[in-house]
Amino acid sequence: MHNLKAIDQETIKILNQKRIIQLLYRKKQLTKQEIAQTLKISIPTVISNVRELIEQGFLDETVVGESSGGRKPVIVRFLPDSKYSFGVLITKHHVRIILTNLNFHVIEEKIFHAVYKVNEFNSIITIIKTEIDNIIKTNNIPIEKILGVGFSLPGTVNEENLLLKNAPNLNIKNVCFKDFQKDFPVPLYIENEANASAYAESFINFNHVKNSLVFLSITDGIGTGIMISDNVYKGYNRRAGEFGHMTMVKDGRQCNCGKKGCWEMYASKNALLEEYNKAFNTKDTNLKDFMEMSKNNVKAKAILNNYLDFLAEGIKNIILTLDPECIIIDGEISKYKSLIYTDLKNKIFEENNFYDKKDCHVSFSNLQGNAAILGSALLPMKKLFFLSERIV
Ligand SMILES: [Zn+2]
Question: pTM for this one?
Fold first, then answer.
């Protein structure tokens, strides 16, 4: 019994410290009384835990202002530069690397073009490792201050075993990141790109995010991250949320996953670009010209309208299956929110017997296309901030 009690106290201490550090991350600075009141824990508990967190370097305390007699008020501050984290986002054509502090302030960023061929993924990792080594050197950061390197990957991921099981859009399968660990000076973490985005959206944008959230990452394909009560829902085999590959058209367009008629073949950014390039005999790789054209050109308008029909159909299926409080859309398309928001919402909430506009809040990400990369940098910070492993 004695042992059990000791473990419980240690667990409670760790939980209290995570709650204090998460609260101070959000509020930046508070008095010990304010911490005690907000978290509903005793002042002595706050004092002892704050002392330990100061020793660990995450917090400091300072005297502020004048007091009217008695002791001067002491505030506890969060120190965002106490640790750093690397985030790596791997997409079909590019690799993006960032170094951030605990406030997600990007200290340095690198981006390079990448081509993925079977059995050549190792060479990409070697480039990433060299870039990270250079960033550490040029910024003169002690290695013990770096929590790790987090990877956002466009595919099915077993984050515990560091295994990228399948990434159809990169044409790679069964890549074990444990094999790369020996080459890096800090721990590696991996996560599906949409799940990492959902983490970032709910953690960094905490004021906007409600109880349940589906994050829709509309890029080369469509990734979805599902968060329920602050936990990522992954499913029994850790592949929940593959909405991008739900069948939208029976025997439809051939998808990289092997199936036909998947949603992402009609509603991803690539799908829209393909329709546009085919219709106008162009080879654009971004949506800027097309979206501009869609304001006046009838043909472009029709392509966009057809695209939004498909996008809305998938979102309607998500609302019917998960009934989430909010759906957040991210990707290049979110830059053109003002052009598509009203039409998209009308299509999603057209008259039906199940739900209306007030039942689900559909919006665009405030992280301006950075959710996946910031989410990757958040992965090494998970142990520091989160109370649970946040996986269901
Ligand atoms: Zn597919």
Answer: 0.85
Question: In sequence order, what are the residues at sequence separation of 6 or more whose Cβ sits closer than 8 angstroms to the Cβ of residue 106?
Answer: 98, 99, 100
Distance 256 CA to ligand 1 centre (A): 6
CA of 160 to the centre of ligand 1 (A): 25
How many A from CA of 259 to the centre of ligand 1?
A: 5
CA distance 271 to 273: 5
User: What is the CA(287)–ligand 1 centre distance, in A?
Assistant: 22
Q: 59-63 and 84-90: which strand pairing?
A: unpaired
H/E run at residue 271: helix 269-280
Distance CA(128)–CA(104), nearest Å, equals 20
Which residues make Cβ contacts (< 8 Å) with residue 202, sequence separation at least 6?
209, 213, 227, 230
Answer whether residue 156 shows pLDDT above 70: yes
CA-CA distance, 96 to 234, in Å (whole number)?
Answer: 25
293-323 pLDDT, tens per residue?
A: 999 999 999 999 999 999 999 999 999 999 9
Which residues, by Cβ under 5 Å, contact ligand 1, an ion? 245, 255, 257, 259, 262
The token duo for 252 is 């439809």
CA of 222 to the centre of ligand 1 (A): 10
- Tens digits of residue pLDDT in 169-216: 888 889 999 999 999 999 999 999 999 998 888 888 766 556 789 999
